[in-house]
């Protein structure tokens, strides 16, 4: 769902999205002797449905001439990618899958010259990525391959950006 409000001086928008993701794995090269009542079948695995959602919004204000100031906010709860839930080597499915969380804020200013031949945009962004998931391959003590599904890692992305466009 998306909504927008616009006047000569102000523009505002809001977005909401929802998702349900289910991953299915089938290895066409490996038979699972325990599958299908002992008759064997290709190695398969699948997850339950993993819900996610996003909420985003922003506002832009044009006080005078070619100037505008803006602010945006977003919150996303997203299922990890396939490789961080199911091992594509042996079909192992991670226990206790948790969504990754993105929380983003951006503020900035735009300026367009009266002749419209120069556009300048400067902004600051601050984004946290929480509960990031990762799949790490390991060698077990018996020499077999194994996997560790890690979640709970956090990242921070922030900085200033400056864009200029001249015609």
What does it look like?
The two termini are 36 Å apart. The protein has strands at 2-6, 10-21, 24-32, 41-46, 50-61, 67-78, 100-112, 118-139, 145-166. The strands form two sheets. The chain has a seven-stranded antiparallel beta sheet with strand order 1-2-5-6-7-8-9, with no helix packed on it. It is mostly beta strands. It contains no helices and nine strands. Strand 5 and strand 6 (67-78) form a beta hairpin.
Note the beta-strand portion.
Answer: over 45%
Order the strands across the largest sheet as they lie in space: 1-2-5-6-7-8-9
Cα separation of the termini: 36 Å
Helical content (DSSP H or I, runs of 4+)? under 10%
Continuous helix count: 0
From the alpha-carbon coordinates, what is the Rg to the nearest angstrom? 24 Å
Task: Indicate the structural class.
Answer: mainly beta
Sequence of secondary-structure elements: EEEEEEEEE
Biggest sheet character: 7 strands, antiparallel
- Ranges where pLDDT stays below 50 over 5 or more residues in a row are none
Mean pLDDT: 91
Number of strand segments? 9
Shape: elongated
Q: Helix and strand layout, with pairings?
A:
Elements: E1 2-6, E2 10-21, E3 24-32, E4 41-46, E5 50-61, E6 67-78, E7 100-112, E8 118-139, E9 145-166
Antiparallel strand pairs: 1-2, 2-5, 3-4, 5-6, 6-7, 7-8, 8-9
């Amino acid at each position: 769902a998306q909504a927008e409000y616009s006047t000569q001086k102000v523009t505002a928008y809001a977005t909401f999205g929802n998702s349900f993701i289910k991953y299915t794995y089938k290895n066409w090269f490996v038979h699972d002797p325990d599958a299908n009542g002992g008759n064997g079948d290709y190695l398969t695995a699948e997850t339950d449905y993993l819900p996610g959602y996003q909420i985003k919004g922003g506002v832009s204000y044009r006080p005078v001439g070619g100037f505008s100031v803006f602010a945006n906010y977003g919150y996303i709860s997203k299922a990890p990618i396939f490789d961080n839930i199911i091992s594509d080597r042996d079909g192992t499915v991670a226990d206790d899958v948790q969504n990754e969380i993105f929380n983003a804020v951006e503020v900035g200013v735009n300026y367009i010259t009266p002749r419209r031949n120069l556009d300048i945009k400067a902004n600051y962004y601050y984004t946290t990525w929480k509960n990031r998931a990762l799949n790490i391959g390991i060698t077990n003590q018996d020499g077999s391959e194994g996997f560790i599904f890690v979640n709970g890692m956090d990242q921070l992305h922030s900085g200033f950006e400056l864009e200029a466009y001249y015609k």
